Amino acid sequence: QTVTGNFAKVIHGLNANQLTDQVIQRSKRMILDTLGVGLLGTSTEVFHKVAQYSKIYSSDLSSTIWGHLDFRLPPLYAAFVNGVAVHSMDFDDTWHPATHPSGAVLPALIALSEAFPQKKKISGLDLLLAFNVGIEVQGRLLHFSSEARNIPRRY
């Protein structure tokens, strides 16, 4: 089976009913941790540089920069800036071999969810499902990556 086929087989048809109580509780903890680290990261120099640079982009469709309610960017750039805030502290969750799943997934999900029209807003359970699909994708990418398997030997 191809890598793409494996991804499609697992992800297709997932729904919120498949989330166990344990997965929901762990996901909430991961999300809360990521938000906390991200908010702390908005005080870093690298965050300020990236945020300043990103101000050149504007769009009618916009998402919030964490900790700065008056600062909005297109979802792509908001996800990037908020992701930089999370990872700039380097306290976000980690798998072995090294990857930071929540710091890549959560900023993108929140930025996209803010960009949905009001009548199409997603529920908290939908957000948890999307978060877990993103985490699953990261885990599978890690599993299929020959580069990731070599990380412990390289460092």
UniProtKB/TrEMBL annotation:
<protein>
    <submittedName>
        <fullName>IRG1 decarboxylase</fullName>
    </submittedName>
</protein>
<dbReference type="GO" id="GO:0006952">
    <property type="term" value="P:defense response"/>
</dbReference>
<feature type="domain" description="MmgE/PrpD N-terminal">
    <location>
        <begin position="6"/>
        <end position="149"/>
    </location>
</feature>
<dbReference type="Pfam" id="PF03972">
    <property type="entry name" value="MmgE_PrpD_N"/>
</dbReference>
<dbReference type="InterPro" id="IPR042183">
    <property type="entry name" value="MmgE/PrpD_sf_1"/>
</dbReference>
<comment type="similarity">
    <text>Belongs to the PrpD family.</text>
</comment>
<dbReference type="InterPro" id="IPR036148">
    <property type="entry name" value="MmgE/PrpD_sf"/>
</dbReference>
<dbReference type="InterPro" id="IPR005656">
    <property type="entry name" value="MmgE_PrpD"/>
</dbReference>
<dbReference type="InterPro" id="IPR045336">
    <property type="entry name" value="MmgE_PrpD_N"/>
</dbReference>
<dbReference type="GO" id="GO:0047613">
    <property type="term" value="F:aconitate decarboxylase activity"/>
</dbReference>
<dbReference type="GO" id="GO:0005739">
    <property type="term" value="C:mitochondrion"/>
</dbReference>
